[in-house]
Design brief:
The structure is a homotetramer of 324-residue chains. Chain A is an alpha/beta fold and 324 residues long. The first copy, chain A, is built from 15 helices and nine strands. In chain A, helix 9 packs across helix 12, helix 9 packs parallel to helix 14 and helix 13 packs across helix 14. Chain A is elongated, with a radius of gyration of 22 Å. The interface between B and D is medium-sized, with 20 and 20 residues.
Chain lengths: 324, 324, 324, 324
C-alpha cells in the first residue's frame, strides 16, 4: 500500500524567493471564515480583494479595508491567487464554471471548504481544462480561531504550487501541512471530524455520569483535561455542557449534519467499520428532533440528560439513585 | 442536586506546617506502580518501608533503598501512613482485615487501586471500627509515568486528612485534587477510564480510515494531534497502532476488561446512557477472542483492520478501493 | 399528529365491478422481480406486455408468453396499466419522462422499486403534468417469493386508483395494503428494511455466541425460532450462517448498501434516533471490505467470526475458553 | 470444535414406560411461574407438593389443590422430583444446601430459573456430593404463557435423566429440547434473551420512525409482522408501544437489568462481539433513569421518543419536519 511520504509542516520560506511572489489575494465567499482570513492577510501586508453575493458581507469586508469586486469575473482580473470558502457543492460548481470561463491561465485557487471530495474533483476538472489549478486545502479551526490566526491548513494538490503558496498560508494560519495529492486535505479533514463527532459525545457521557454523582461538569473538565482521558473537545465543549452553554454556537447542529453525512459516506466508500462514529449518529438526529438545530453540537449533552432524567419521570416514583 | 464544591489542586503547603509531619511511609503492594511511587518518596526524603507477597518485588524494593517489613503487621508498627496498591478486591479486603487487627488508632491509609467503590466502602468500614482511616485516592497515569513522578492523585475522604497528606502526595505525584467525600476519587477515575475506553477506539477508527486512503498512522497522529480531533489517546496510543505497536504493553487487554466491567456497572447503577462506551465493549471482547489478551489495548486497531480487510478476503476478488 | 387511518388489507373485490376492468398490463423492467410478477399475471388471465433494455430479459419474457414491446412508447399504447421495477433513480426519472411524453391521459403506473421518496415524488410530478398517475407501491418479498406469488404490496397514492387496481395486485401478490398518501408505501418499506438490517445482525450475534459454546447454528435456529427471540430473519438467514451459506445470494451486500443509505437518510430527515440500526452500519461496511460484496447479507456472521476468532489469533496462545 | 448433536424435541414417550414413573412432583418457589406450572401438572394428574417462604404464595397454592409442605426438608420426603423456580443466586445456593442435607439419594431437581451458569454449577456440585442430581432447565415463556401451558423447556444435564423426566416436562410445557450437557439450557436461554433485548429495541426504532411519519404503531405492527422484518417481539411488544402500553408489565425493566448483566458477562467470557446487544444497554439504563423501573421493557419506546421529540423542545422553534 502506497503511503503519503510528504508531510512538511514547513515553517520556513525555502525556495520561495525564487518564485514570483503573490501580492494580491482574492476571496470568493466572505462569511465568518473568509472575512477572518482576509483580515489576517491584510495585516500581513497583502492587497486583498473579494466578492460575496450578500451585501452585508461585502460592506463588512470593505470597512475592514478590503477591495470589493463587483463579481467573480472582475475579481479574477485583480488578483494572483483566489481563496474560496463556500457553503455548498452547488456554490463550488458554479464558482468553478465562472473561474474557468474567466480564462486566466495559471491562476491558483485555494479551496478551503468542507465538501465531498467528488465535488471538489469535478470542480478541479472543470478548471483544469482552462489552465486554472484548484488546490484542496480545508482548514482546521473555528471562526473564532480564524480571527486570531489559529488555523491549520491541510493542503493537498501539486507540490510545487503548495510550495509557492506558503507565504499566503502563513498570512492567515499558524501552521500548514502538505498532505500530498489533491483530495488528501479533505481526507485528513474527514478524519479530524470523525474524531470530533465522537469526542463531543464522549465528553457528554463522562460529564453526565459525573453530574449524576454530584460532580459539576466544570470540575470534571478541570480534573480530567490533563489526564489520559483528555481531549480538545473535553476542553472546548465540556464547559459548554452546563448552564445551556450550547446556546453559544461554535458549530450548529443543522450544519454539522452535513459533515456527518460526508463522514458516513466516506466510511462506506472506503469500506471501513467505525462503530463509535456510527453510535454518534442517533444522538445528533435526536438533537435535531429535540429542537437543537440552531444550537451548538454540545447539545448532545441535553439529549443524554433528557433521555434518562428526573425531568422526564413518567410517574411520581423516585429511583434509589435520587435518594442518595 | 448537591455538587462537589471542593476542588483544590493545592500546590502550596498551606497549613501543613502546623500538622505533625509524616516522615515514614509504608507500602503494601510493591508492583510496578507501588515501587515507582516508593522510589520517588525516597528521593523526596521519606523513610520508606514496604511489604509484598512476592520475593522478587521485595528484593527490588530493598535494592532501591527500601526497608522490607516481614509482613503487614510489622509494617504498621514502622510507619505513620500506608499506601496500598492492590490487584483485586480480595487483596483489599484481606489488607483491611490485617490493618484493622493491627490496632493502630489514627493510622491513615491511602488506597490507590482501581477497584469497585462498594469494595472500597467495605474496606473502609472494617478499618473505621478500629480507628484506622482509609482514603480513596486512585491515580491517573501509567507505570512509566509513575516512575517519572508524572502522576495525578484523585484524593477523596475526610478533608482534614487529605490536607495533612499533601506532603506525601507531593512526594510521588505532580498534582493532586481533593475531590470531596470518600469514593469521589474512584468516580473521577471511572469517568477518566470511560473516556480512555472510547478515545482508544476512536483513534483506531480514524487511523484505519486514513490507512485505507494511504495515509500512514504516524502522519495522521502528527497532523491531527494539535487540532479539534486531538486527544491524549491519539498521541499516546496512535503511534502504537502501526507495526504491531500493541506488543509493547502499557495496559493489557485482559486487565482492562476488569476496568470495563467496573465502568459498565457504574453506568447501570447511576442509570446513565453511554452509547459510545457501550459500542467499545464488543471491540475489547473481540480483541480477547483474537488472542490479544496479553497485548496493549491499542490492539483494537487490529480488530477493526482484520474485520474489514484484504487479508481476510473470502475470495480472490479485489474491491475497487484496492485498485486506487 | 395526524395518523394514517386507512389500512385495508382488502381481499375482496368490493366496488371493482363498477370500474372498467384492466385486462392488459405492461411491465417496464423485466428483471427477476418484474418477470416473476409478469408470469403470475399471465397465469391469472391478464394479457401482459413488457419492455426491458437487455435482450436476454426480453427473450425470457417472450418465452414465458409475454408480448415484447419495442420500446416504452409502444408499450404505453398497448396496455391499461404499467408496472415499473427499476434499478436506480436515474432509470425512474428517464421512465417518467418517456411516459409523460407518451401523452396517454388516465394511465396508471404502479411503481414497485425501492427508491428514495424524493425521487419518486419527482417522477410523480413529471407524469402528473401529462395526466399520468404514479402510485408508490413497493413490495415485501424476494425474487424467489415473487415467483410463487408470495409478495405483499405496500400500496400508496390516490385511494380510488388503489381500489381500481385491486384485481391487478391480486394477480401477482398474496396480500396488499392501502397505506394512504403517496410515499407511505416507501415509508413502510423503509421501516421493514430497518428491521431486516438489525435482525440479520442480531441473528449473527446469537448464533456466534452459540457456536463458541459448541451449539450449532442449525440447532439454535430450530430451538429459538418458536420462542420470544424468534424472527423471520432468524428462520431465513440463520441457516445461511453456517457452511458459508452466504454464497447463495438472496440479497447482495453491495446492493443492500443502497438500501442502508436510504434508511440512514430517512432517519436523519425524520430526526429519529435508531441506535441499533446505526450499529449495523459498520458491519455491512466491514463485509464489503472483507470482500463479501457479491455474497448474501448473511455474511455479517463471517465479519463477527473473523474479528474475534482463533483463525486470526495473533500468537500461538490459547484462551481459556478454547480449553473448555 | 465439538458441537451438540442431541436435539430431540421428543413429543412421544419412547422408552418411558420402562422407567419408574414420577407421580409426585414438588415445587420450591411458588411465584407466578412456579404456581402456573404446578397447576398444569395437577391437571395432568400429578400429585403436586410445594413450599414457598411467603404465606400468600402457599395459600394460593393450597386453594389450587396443592399439598403445602412445612419446609423444604419435608417436601423432599414427599416427592420423586423437585422443580425449582428461584429469584436469585443466593436462593439457589441455600436451596442446594437444604436439598443436599436432606440426604435423599437419587432425587432429581429440575432447575428452571434464569441465573448465572457459574451459580448453577456450584449448586449442582453441592448436591452431587449427596447423590442428588440437578438439571439445568430454563424456560422460554412468560407467566401468562406458563398459565396456558405455552412453555418450552431448554433441558440440559444427563441424557438418561432428561429422558425419564419427559412425562413431567409434558405436564407443564408444550415442547422441550434436550440440549446436551448441564449448562446448555442456560446458554440457549441467554441466546434467546440476547435476541429479545435487541428485537424489543428494534421494534421501538421502527415504530417511532413510522409514528413521526404519521403511521400508527398498531398499523405498522399489522403490516410488518408477516414480512421480512417480522419478529415475535414486534408482535408482542409492538402493540404495547402506544398509549403507554408499557404500564401492563410482562417483564419489568428493573428485573430485566439482571438478565442484561448475565448476557453481558456471557459475551465477555466467551469473547464474542455483539455490537447490537451492546447498543441496547444505554437504552435500558436510560429507561431506569427515566423512572420506568417498574414498567415493561416496551418502555424503551418512550426513551427514544423523549430523547428526540417535540415535548422536549428546547425553544419555541419548530423543525421543518413538523411543518410537513
Amino acid at each position: 500500500m502506497s503511503t503519503n511520504k510528504l508531510v512538511k509542516p514547513s515553517k520556513t520560506k525555502l525556495s520561495v524567493a525564487a518564485s514570483p511572489a503573490f501580492e494580491r489575494v482574492g476571496f470568493l465567499g466572505l462569511g465568518i471564515m473568509g472575512s477572518a482570513m482576509a483580515g489576517n492577510l491584510m495585516k500581513a501586508g497583502f492587497e486583498v480583494h473579494g466578492f460575496d453575493p450578500t451585501t452585508k458581507a461585502r460592506q463588512r469586508f470593505k470597512s475592514a479595508g478590503g477591495h470589493v469586486s463587483k463579481d467573480a469575473a472582475e475579481l479574477v482580473r485583480s488578483v494572483d491567487v483566489i481563496i474560496t470558502s463556500l457553503p455548498s457543492p452547488d456554490a463550488l460548481i458554479e464558482t468553478a464554471n465562472v473561474l474557468a470561463r474567466a480564462g486566466r491561465k495559471g491562476l491558483l485557487v485555494i479551496e478551503t471548504s468542507t465538501l465531498d471530495i467528488k465535488d471538489k474533483d469535478a470542480a478541479r476538472d472543470v478548471m483544469a481544462k482552462k489552465g486554472v489549478t484548484l488546490l484542496d486545502c480545508p482548514l482546521s479551526g473555528t471562526g473564532a480561531q480564524a480571527a486570531r490566526k489559529d488555523l491549520t491548513v491541510y493542503a493537498s494538490g501539486p507540490a510545487a504550487d503548495i510550495r509557492r503558496l506558503v507565504p499566503v498560508f502563513e498570512g492567515f494560519s499558524k501552521a500548514h501541512f502538505d498532505l500530498g495529492p489533491f483530495g488528501n486535505g479533505m481526507k485528513m479533514k474527514l478524519m479530524a471530524n470523525l474524531l470530533v463527532a465522537i469526542h463531543n459525545v464522549s465528553t457528554a457521557e463522562a460529564l453526565l455520569l459525573g453530574q449524576r454523582w454530584g460532580i459539576k461538569p466544570s470540575t470534571a473538565v478541570k480534573v480530567l483535561s490533563d489526564g489520559a482521558g483528555g481531549s480538545r473537545m473535553l476542553q472546548v465543549r465540556g464547559p459548554m455542557m452546563e448552564n445551556e452553554g450550547w446556546k453559544e454556537v461554535t458549530m450548529k447542529i443543522s450544519v454539522w449534519q452535513k459533515d456527518m453525512k460526508l463522514i458516513a459516506q466516506a466510511l462506506a466508500d472506503a469500506q471501513v467499520p467505525a462503530p463509535l462514529f456510527a453510535a454518534t449518529i442517533p444522538l445528533y438526529n435526536a438533537a435535531m428532533g429535540m429542537g437543537h438545530e440552531s444550537n451548538d453540537t454540545a447539545a448532545v449533552f441535553d439529549v443524554l440528560e433528557k433521555m434518562s432524567s428526573i425531568s422526564n419521570k413518567v410517574a411520581g416514583k423516585k429511583t434509589a439513585l435520587r435518594k442518595r
